[in-house]
Write a structure and sequence with these properties.
Fumarase C, Chain B, domain 1; Fumarase C, Chain A, domain 2; two-stranded parallel sheet; binds arginine
Length: 466
Amino acid sequence: MADRGGEEGGGLWGGRFSGGMAPEMEPLNRSLDDDFRLWPHDIEGSRAWARALAHAGVLTDEEGETLLKGLDRVAARLREGVGGPVPDEDIHSLVERLLGEAVGEVAGKLHTGRSRNDQVATDLRLWAMERLDRIDDLLVGLGEALVTLARTGVDPILPGYTHLQQGQPIRAAHWALSHLWPLLRDRRRFQEVRRSVAVLPLGSGALAGCPFPVDREALREALGFEALSENSMDAVSDRDWAAEFLFAGSLLGVHLSRLGEDLLLFSTREFGFIRIADGYSTGSSLMPQKRNPDVAELVRGKSGRLVGNLTGLLTLLKGLPTGYNRDLQEDKALIFDTADTLELTLPAIAGAVRTARFQPAAMERARNAELLATDLADILVRGGVPFRKSHEIVGALVREAEEREVSLSELPDSVFGKHHPVLANGAARAAFDWEASVEARAIPGGTARASVEAQLEEATRRLGVG
Ligand code: ARG
């Protein structure tokens, strides 16, 4: 039988109905499979509500105590698992039914002045605060892993890319840290989401507020929220925090995907700058030599569903009339999936980064002297040649090296001198020094050792780790 039957006391809203719910409506109506995980928060919110009702004189102290003890027993039962299929529509009806089994008719007083609309909104926010704290820890974990890898990459010099073509040399640490700063911005974004989450809807009822003088401020304090919702109609249907959460999750997903892509590319035979540990790679069932960096591909793949969850939620919210609408039941699967996906991917990618090893010999093999063409132009600039002109001169030198089928650094001194006197008599040679090139960029945010070390120090400080 469907969750109805007000007369039997099993359902939440059966009084005005005759007959049971159509069998094909039942599975559509039911959200228990999705929202069962909210039970600890449903109990927590219900405990606070029972206290608030007793405080407001709606319940006697004794009734309040009975409900609190009863809710403890319900929690103990749920902790063990309900064991098999249950008839209830959602977690709120399940908790209330179990409370009835635990304490009898007085259980029916708990829902006074409350609606599942403000209840589910409260439960979800309680759940989100907990998960956001965990995601913050995991973000710090990945940040630490990048810092650990970066510390091993201060000396090795990597070709830096734009358009995936070799551009200028950088320290390998600079590359690793380039993936850290987006994560620190993600962290700030999630912290802002948490502030949006920490607004208490409880006391809003179905839409018009609670007619009993419950102390919402005390509820806020007891449940660990930072503020009270200002408008009961808005409060029951506000899922802005969820959209913000799914956006923050999507953007983090995009960042992880880009990190994954770099790890993938850099661990190929063609690049070979980094080696992913065996524990994060898989083999092929057919090709014996294969060692695939699946961690990076899976993380890249998971970012698609994170973006999908955001799109799904925004589409769900668009066009809803004021107040609670049942469409909102669909929010949970999306919100939960983003949290689950992040908690699945963050530790794995963190482990892969922490155990990855830079391969300086491969970096050296891959570096072409053309990476130093800008440094050559800078020699001309220091000799008083306008940069545009220097650019043109070096461009012509690169073309000449190409025609002679030699590397830029292998052109004879006479050729450099022919292109410009500032480059004559071996003066051009100064450009072909990898260390000097990265050291020349000694400003904050640059590639010089001191700049990269300052970056490392700031990153460590921002992560709040030693
Ligand atoms: N299961 C519902 C949800 O997830 C709870 C609220 C139901 N409210 C209602 N008026 N039917 O949104």
